[in-house]
Amino acid sequence: MLRALTLRLPGPWRRPPTRGCASGAAAGDPEIQVRALAAADQGITEILMNRPSACNALGNVLVSQLLEALAQLREDRQVRVLLFRSGVKGVFCAGADLKEREQMSEAEVGVFVHRLRGLMNEIAAFPAPTIAAMDGFALGGGLELALACDLRVAAASSAVMGLIETTRGLLPGAGGTQRLPRCLGVALAKELIFTGRRLSGAQAQALGLVNHAVAPNKEGDAAYHRALALAQEILPQAPIAVRLGKVAIDRGIEVDIASGMAIEGICYAQNIPTRDRLEGMAAFREKRPPQFLGE
Predict the structure, then answer these.
(1) Would residue 110 show up in a list of annotated catalytic residues for this protein?
(2) Is the dihedral of CA 4, 6, 7, 10 positive or negative?
(3) Fewer beta carbons within 10 angstroms: which end of the chain, N or C?
(4) pTM of the model
(5) Is 269 noted as a catalytic residue in this protein?
């Protein structure tokens, strides 16, 4: 079940199928929808990108709406998992809106790319776990958005992803040159960026770029359903412990092992006074499932 949140928002592979990116939204319509799931899935929130006229390309409006949504959601302690998905069949996100960028001056391009990089940093720094559900094309900035998420799920054959900027006379500018080597290692990241190669979901899983690759379905949302199942696995776990685990991993991976162990110790110490830790111990002792409240 879904409960919609009201947000005040500012105004060789084949190409994505035209029917998936045909204009289906009126000018001025919100380009994202934020949905808080209800009932057994309460605690899972979805950001659905819905810009069919441009294959969810990251233009000024879409970027502004994503930033506004993230700013509101990061303050909501009820959000235990945040899931990014597409409302446009066959496409996750086609990357930066190059048609819009053609109309910008060099100075405006610099400002926009800075905002785009900031968006990816906000996704990466989101306190709760984030999952990208890629049921279609995730190219350039679209893959950078997925790389900013903690976990990635892709349709094995219908998802196509790559940092293809060098094929357009560009280089990745929204975190791709930094997050891809941290994900896959330096040599492989260089190969993929230098060649602009596109990967299927199955190929991406074999390299470790995505956590899971699933067979596509007729509805075109198989990756979403696998991502939702993954979110449901996270949902019953102690939310403060999960958030602190994310901090320990994200900060620890950037430093030497001794400093990383110190970061882990700081995070562990913050978890000791929580009611959830006491609940976990009591549930273990009483042989019952724990009921974590995030306190």
Answers:
(1) no
(2) positive
(3) N
(4) 0.90
(5) no
